Amino acid sequence: MNTQLNQLIPKKTIILGFEKHYLKNKCYNIPIIQSFICNDFQVCFYCNFCLRFHYHGRSYNGIGDGHRSCHCALQESPFYQTGYILKLNQEQTQ
Length: 94
Ligand SMILES: [Zn+2]
Description:
Blueprint: H1 3-6, E1 15-23, E2 26-37, E3 42-47, E4 52-57, E5 66-68, E6 84-88
Parallel strand pairs: 2-6
Antiparallel strand pairs: 1-2, 2-3, 3-4, 5-6
The structure holds zinc ion.
Zinc ion is lined by residues 47, 49-50, 54, 72, 77.
């Protein structure tokens, strides 16, 4: 665990854009969220709606990018229905 990296993770949700995806035959604009490496196994980002970090495994494709079910506990979260697409902060991949 690199605590140095952890301090670089901003305490806000960074939405990079939206991508259209079909879920259950319905088209949704799914947010692309900047994620950060937080340890050898997980990426994370701070959720503005739950006011906490959401952690996702990196085993998916090594870096953790891709569509994920949301980890939001609040049904009011705009991510709740669609999930989100994680995109790793490029500065951390070098
Ligand atoms: Zn959340």
